[in-house]
Design a protein that fits this description.
Length: 207
């Protein structure tokens, strides 16, 4: 996970090349949250756009999820307010059930009670509407994710993260990557301490 504005790595997980990345998405966001870092937008590839992800990003973190629109997405009637209310009414025997709850309260309630599916459907339906009603503006917002690819190129070219990665074993690779990020954070911290917030993570002219 990286900060889009300053190209600063915030959390990292090293995995085997055959291991799927998707299960690490929400735990990495939780790690950033545990550090006390607040965020308003989350940009990621559409592969991470599960219903649970939409629900957690919007309700646990009160942020906006931005994903590229996938071709296999379809409108989900289960995500409409009437359907949400019906699911919520199923909890009427619970001690924390609130009659006459607002839509926001019902969505929060379902997430808190580990039922994020309908909540994620609700938000993905609305996200699909955004794409359909104003595709250009939505695409421009999602394109902020390009900063992630720029960051990867920056790391590969300026910190030789691939050039010297000839280790065998994920633990040795992890050590190499973490040392690279620690060096980057040291540069960033030094600049911040001197009031320099432009190009904080730039190491192009350092040796």
């Amino acid at each position: 996970v990286m900060d889009r504005d300053h190209y600063v790595p915030l959390a990292v997980e090293i995995t085997d090349i055959i291991e799927a990345d998707i299960p690490f998405f929400l735990p990495l966001l939780a790690e950033v949250d545990n550090l006390g870092i607040e965020f308003e937008n989350v940009y990621a590839d559409g592969a991470y756009a599960s219903f649970e992800t939409f629900a957690i990003v919007h309700h646990r973190y009160r942020a906006k999820a931005w994903f590229n629109k996938c071709e296999n997405w379809v409108y989900k009637p289960e995500g409409e307010p009437e359907a949400i209310q019906k699911v919520y009414q199923g909890y009427w025997e619970e001690s924390d059930f609130k009659p006459g709850a607002s839509l926001q309260e019902m969505l929060d309630y379902l997430v808190a009670h580990h039922n994020p599916g309908p909540v994620g459907m609700y938000w993905r339906n609305r996200y699909m509407n955004e794409w359909e009603q104003n595709q250009l503006a939505t695409q421009l917002n999602y394109n902020h994710r390009n900063a992630v690819e720029s960051f990867h190129s920056h790391i590969k070219e300026r910190l030789n993260i691939e050039r010297y990665m000839d280790y065998k074993g994920v633990h040795k690779v992890e050590r190499h990557v973490l040392m690279t990020y620690i060096a980057l954070l040291a540069v960033t911290l030094c600049r911040a301490q001197h009031g320099m917030f432009e190009g904080m993570a730039n190491v192009e002219y350092l040796c």
